[in-house]
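TL;DR need structure tokens for one chain.
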Amino acid sequence: MEEQHLQTRLIHLLRQDKIQLWLEPYRSLKDPEDRLKIMELAEKYASAIQFPVEKVTSALERIRTETSQKDEGNKEFKETSVATLVLHLPKEEGETRIKKVNLKTKLDITTQELKKQISQEFGFAHFNLILSGKLLSSERKLDEQNVKNNSKIMLVKGTPPDAKAEMYKNEEEKRKQEEEIKKTQKGFQILSERDGSEDPSTTPFLEIADQKGNPLQIPDEERKALILAMGFHEKGRALMKKRDHSAALPYLVLADEQFKKCNSAILHTVDNYAVLQLDVVWCYQALGQLECLNDAQQRLEKADQCFQRCYGEKQSRLQQIKGHTGGEEVLFLRLRILQTLQTYIEGHKNQAREKLGEVERLYAELSLDPQKLQQLKELGFSEQEARLGLRACRGDVSAAALLITERKKEKQAMKLKEQDKRRRRLQDINILVELGFGRRDAQRALHQARGDVDKAYGILLDGADAQKSDRDKKLNELLSLGFQEDMADSALRMTGDDVQQATVMLLENQGVIPADLQSPSPPSSSSEEPSTSSESTGSSRQDEDLLVNELLEDIPKHEEDYLDLTLDEEKELMEKIRSSLEKQN
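>> reply
TL;DR here they are.
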């Protein structure tokens, strides 16, 4: 544990100082000048972390060697698809350290074929291979079980499993599958709980942003509620675009429930809540059920007030933030049409006629010239970009082209900035994970410490001490029943520290847990997860991502998609109102 702790701290310092040990002037301890440089580095770090210089020097050389080998292995894998696996062999009698060896292999072979290769090279007869706390299945191929280049695989001596051991293994796998199925049923909740600390290229993540696209710093609980609200809202909007208003309405109602859990001050900062109020009323009118919406007028008033707060008087705040206001006019068009309809339904015919006149003038201003749209499309812009750009620039083609181009650059810069922020946060989390803490615990601690790794480390240590005390009580309870300490410890570990389940397991096995059922190593005392490596996501995370990705299909790629209205529906509704008014002349 001390060795791992020292190596992790040194890796952190090396990254912090941007030192690459496999490059000059640290290439090898054989070269006198290189040795002098690495000794100077060792003395510097030994003083900083309070470790003997000899241990620091030895650890630095291990890091240098392992990194060089990994770099060479990566090049080989890229060129030949031959992967390097890091095998952790069991300690032989008298040895104090686990022996690590590199093994070259293809990944499209079965585990059984790999085991045969290991037997030939290292002489082991009966053993199991474990990757990230999961037993590799003999019949399945390595790449199907998330084995990758540089994967760390533990070799555990054992005997072929008997029937009872096999039964326990199957029951454990079934239990895990049931737990993961429950997780995948919470699509949007899974999404809402992600904090953006993982690889953005593989991990879907939603963020709350202002009109400019800048992330908003808000409390976790409210952030979760907002993401749930926005997720339901976008699902509803996707159905609205297909004009399936009956299917869209339930999602909008769910979104409304989540928005109500948020602090009103937050709702004043983003316009999502106002847009939702419009969409709910719009769905009711599209279904011809506006009379069933008792609070239609109140919703429209909320939307109007929210727009005023978000955009400022005469949209002055919006002009200051975005530099233009034309795009948001479509929201006011929809709002004014619904207000006109509401006025008409309430029996105020003359007032409705006046309102309709204003609406028709705004509609004429927002209607786009097809030739101008075509001009922008010929410049390589999408129809959506062209429509949004023209409306934002009041129909000026040149200004629209410039705006679209500048906005793309801003979005790219913001995306890179956010990716860098998430990458740095991921590095910090990995440092804590490598020290033996669970990933979720590391995320929480780092959040609590406002990004300070050292403070997060202290928080995790305090939590580990408290949890260890609780676990010691459970272990003593099993010891008082007469079970051996090592067997009691294994049983607790395998049952998630459930004393009752551990007792049953020990009794059924006459107090001796079969070796092939025991976990290869205890999870961190502060961890909710059994593994700390990048491969530990496993099938459960893949299942979650599949569900989340399916949900995210309804999330538009363009942040101003909600402003991109063709105005076809608006035109139809205006004509209906006009027709009804004319019939009453």
